[in-house]
Specification:
With 275 residues, the chain is of the alpha+beta class. The chain contains 6 helices and 13 strands.
Length: 275
């Protein structure tokens, strides 16, 4: 973790901190804090994000999620509150988004019923898979969860103005920029000359999902079980990072009929879209 601080007066200034986490870069700007306060907040945030990363990394053999995926078809696995909450939330949201966001798409022999093979025991915070080959992947969700955790930390500590950016795909703005109302965020497309547009955020989140080139394939469509083909881009404005992560992915893979149903089940705004 690295930090820079610029004093505005004797009591407050701007603290900028950045570090690598969750296979991307996290940048945070805190406004109106002392250097000591800012460094304290940066330390709390770094610790929280690293704990979530170690817990929910799909590829890390030492992560709690990896161990769940290798054992839950044999016996119920008791989980930490955070990991159980993430899985539970994703299952609940799947019903609201027509199954267009599905954390089991990385499973062996995946089909539309795979999600229903996950059993939750709320009293024990335990998870059991009723068939072999089921694997949960939270990669399209955990950044939003981490973003919400950071916002909770800042609110708890009394920080009113901040910008939290996770890899340019998940951005939460609290309060105001030091020199204006809200925070002006660009939706410029990565790897594409099209400029998109600018959006002013104020106590809300801008989340983006995309295939920014025709060749890029990284999002699996639950409808087909195959990677989404072709160029596509969508950003959504929501009150929470978790909702934004789910919606941006779901809307990108959804067909027109599914999209209309999803729109009825959520309160959000389209920031920018090419599909």
């Amino acid at each position: 973790m690295q930090t820079l601080y610029k004093a505005i007066n004797e009591k407050n200034g701007l603290l900028y901190t950045w570090f690598e986490a969750m296979h991307t870069r996290m940048d945070i700007l805190l406004c109106g804090c002392s250097k000591k306060e800012g460094e304290h907040l940066a330390g709390l945030i770094y610790k929280e994000i690293k704990q979530l990363e170690e817990m929910a990394d799909f590829y890390n053999k030492d992560s709690e999620l990896y161990k769940l995926n290798t054992s839950a078809n044999q016996h119920p696995v008791r989980l930490s509150m955070d990991l159980f909450t993430m899985i539970d939330d994703c299952i609940v949201h799947s019903k609201r988004n027509e199954g267009c966001f599905d954390i089991t798409v990385q499973s062996h022999n995946y089909n539309k019923t795979t999600l229903s093979t996950i059993r939750l025991c709320r009293e024990e915070h335990a998870v059991f898979y009723t068939r072999r080959g089921v694997r949960i992947d939270l990669s399209g969700y955990v950044k939003g969860y981490a973003l919400d955790k950071v916002v909770d930390i800042l609110k708890r500590e009394g920080q009113e103005n901040a910008l939290i950016n996770m890899g340019n795909s998940s951005v939460f703005a609290m309060g105001n920029h030091p020199y204006g109302d809200g925070w002006k965020i660009s939706t410029t497309l990565a790897g594409n000359k099209e400029e998109g547009k600018s959006i002013v955020l104020h106590n809300n989140c801008l989340t983006t999902s995309d295939n920014h080139t025709k060749e890029r394939k990284h999002i699996i469509s639950p409808s087909t079980g195959n990677y989404l083909e072709g160029f596509g881009y969508i950003s959504v404005l929501t009150d929470r990072g978790t909702t934004g992560e789910i919606l941006s992915t779901a809307l990108l893979v959804a067909d027109p009929s599914q999209r209309e149903k999803i729109k009825k089940n959520y309160e959000f705004e389209i920031g920018y879209e090419i599909k």
